[in-house]
Specification:
The protein has 6 helices and 8 strands; from the N terminus they run αβαββαβαββααββ. By secondary structure, it is α/β, with parallel strands linked by helices. It has an 8-stranded mixed beta barrel with strand order 1-2-3-4-5-6-7-8, surrounded by 4 helices. β3, α3 and β4 form a beta-alpha-beta unit.
Amino acid sequence: MRAPLAYPLIHLVLCAVLYLATPSGDDVRAAMRAGLLACMTTPAQGNVIPPGCLYACDNGKFGKGWPGAEAWFAWLKATLDRYGPDRCLWAVAPDVPMDATATLTESLPWLQQIRSLGIPAAFAAQDGSEHGLIPWDLIDVLFLAGSTEWKTSPAAHRPALEARERGLDATWAASTLAGCCASRRPSAAPAPTAPTSPSAPTPTSPASSPG
């Protein structure tokens, strides 16, 4: 008898998946223009998003790209003005990597402000967020960040399933800040319909890092 599939793959097999990456290299940018990939952008990235490409806005909290809350929000508004809110899949509210309690405190003031821009608000879940530390009524996308061990574990799978049951999108931070995997679900707030790649990777296929 064939062994059952691991839990993250089971979840993704049941969902359409879109991979987001940085727009580096001609092949990647061509795939974005063709709708096979979407673009992940951050305040410190500086790359131009390819014309017509779907994109998402990370906050730069993991790493050295965080410019401060006010500068981040100004960058987010400028990005939407330049590329259009209709192409934006979501924006990640400010978080505190690896700290679920501090992330909830950091994110709460910004979730509704992100929604007020006409785009879905994403919450960056961390190790331990599954213990009642996800503001479900205020978010449109669950962004599974945290450590590699946590976001590929049953502990992270539980909130991912709850997001699915609530009709939200769930996104796995994967590889480096260069990309993530997004399972597409009808969102609580209006969001564009994303094309999907037939060969999109599972969350465990890249070498994951904290997000």
